[in-house]
Amino acid sequence: MTHRNDRGARRVGPAVAVTALLATVAATPPVGGPAASAAPSAPRAATAPAWCPTVPGHRVDCDTLDRPLVAGTSALGKVKVSYAVVRHSAPGAAKGTVAVNTGGPGEAAIGRAPTLGHVLGDLLKDHDLLLVDPRGTGRSERIPCGVTDAEYRFGTRAQQRAAVKRCAANLGPKAAAYTSAATADDIDAVRARLGVPQLSLYGLSYGTYLMPVYASRHPERVRSIVASGAYPLAFDPLGRPQAQAVSTTLRRVCERSVPVACDGEQAVRDLATAAARLRDRPMTVPVTTGHGTYTVRFTEGKLANLLYEAASREVGAAPGEPSLLGRLPRALNRFAHGDVSALRTLVQEDGASGGPEDQAPYIGVVCNDYRKPWSAKATLPARWHQYRAALAGADRGEYGAFSAEGFNEGPTDGGDVCVDWPRENTAPDPQPTHPKLPDVPVLVLSGDLDANTPDANGARAARQFRGSGFLSVINTGHVPEWEPTGCVTGVSTRFLRTGGPGDTSCLRGLAPITVDPVDM
């Protein structure tokens, strides 16, 4: 699972692309209210920092807060955590405060304020919006480790493991600063400074992991939670739900295409053929970005990453236009028949967004927090033994069209990528997977064409909370807010205001995506 939402600076590997998401949703008026862009900007305080965003129709208050870099280790100093509060527009006191995390790990939130203000629309008439840039991102004091997005994303698996090891060595004891618990405590420190008694939590992708961490550490401060593109704290570290969802997604897009463009079972067979061939004979693909040209060794693992992560992004944002997912059945079919050009083109187009962003916030959280198929306290040889035993113990067929080994070389936040992450100088204990969580209203949403955080993971995320609700959104990917009608954001914001989703019938009527026809 990769949880990066920003298409232009994404972390690869549960990832989302919120920049494009927000731009898409912002093209329509906010649900229940006029377009926010029609409203004049409220005056900003004279003492506001220069980076404080402007949100039409709202006053925005911004500041920074000094926080311990590593709790209980004063010698490492402090980190400046920046935040912005978009104030409600109606007279009187706010009825609540909504804290949004847009994903990652490593996604900055403050820069999204203008579009988030628009997307949340009517809710911000009487609710404030709290945006905190997680430590090491955006305006919250970067602590780089010398590993770039493009290097990490395009490298072989051995190169990715080496980059993780180098990142940890360069950070030294500062590596322990990058945890979901630390970010959750930063958010709560900002809440306390603002004098807000409770927060409504809205998490997208990685935000659906972070917000339960916050809820477990500060349960009395939580009013309600919306989690979109969700996965549980105790997710499968071997990625079986994602692997199975790839085949399900191919079947669904073929079955729903109008007119019928492909045969779903054939698409899955073509995928299995492609995976087997790339397992034996990887393909070399040159990828050109705005920061240079890279040679990618396109393996079964890279194919897995393309299908479960990249192909899940933006699905449903523009149903009538070409998308990576809609083009895959034909590309896989051509590959199975010996023509590699269509698949090669998709790899090159997806890779063009690779950039120079430092990966410390991503690698640190992934390797400190996420569940692994080995003991964090084990020696390196013992970790390898435990990992290989776990793969060997996977049942035949649990990975759909992929092999267990091949699929687990795909996630940049899973498989064996963190095997060299040290326990010395890093977070002492991984994030608990079954903490006590508050009994508050919770709504979980998943796109039913999302193989990154599929329905199976969303339903499991909902079961973490007593009495939660789970909604699968047809013809959408990761996250379902991509869709342009405002239906999903309407359900989410209604839940944040009232504690209930209201009428959800619109979720069943979203248009199927366009699929390139396959010769049948």
What would your notes on this structure say?
The strands form two sheets. The protein has an eight-stranded mixed sheet, sandwiched between helices. With 520 residues, it is of the alpha/beta class. It is globular, with a radius of gyration of 22 Å. It has helices at 18-25, 113-120, 149-154, 157-171, 180-194, 207-217, 240-256, 264-280, 300-308, 324-336, 341-351, 360-369, 380-392, 404-407, 455-462, 487-498; strands at residues 60-68, 78-86, 96-101, 127-132, 199-204, 222-228, 283-289, 292-298, 442-447, 469-473.
Topology (SSEs and partners):
Elements: H1 18-25, E1 60-68, E2 78-86, E3 96-101, H2 113-120, E4 127-132, H3 149-154, H4 157-171, H5 180-194, E5 199-204, H6 207-217, E6 222-228, H7 240-256, H8 264-280, E7 283-289, E8 292-298, H9 300-308, H10 324-336, H11 341-351, H12 360-369, H13 380-392, H14 404-407, E9 442-447, H15 455-462, E10 469-473, H16 487-498
Parallel strand pairs: 3-4, 3-5, 5-6, 6-9, 9-10
Antiparallel strand pairs: 1-2, 2-4, 7-8
Radius of gyration: 22 Å
How can the largest sheet be summarized?
8 strands, mixed
Mean pLDDT: 92
Number of helices: 16
Element order, helices and strands?
HEEEHEHHHEHEHHEEHHHHHHEHEH
Give the class from helix and strand content and strand pairing: alpha/beta
| End-to-end gap | 33 Å
Determine the fraction of residues in helical runs and give it as a percent range: 25-40%
Taken from the alpha-carbon principal axes, the silhouette is globular
Q: Enumerate the spans where pLDDT stays under 50 for 5 or more consecutive residues.
A: 3-39
Strand order across the largest sheet = 1-2-4-3-5-6-9-10
> In percent terms, what proportion of residues is strand?
5-15%
Task: Work out the number of β strands.
Answer: 10
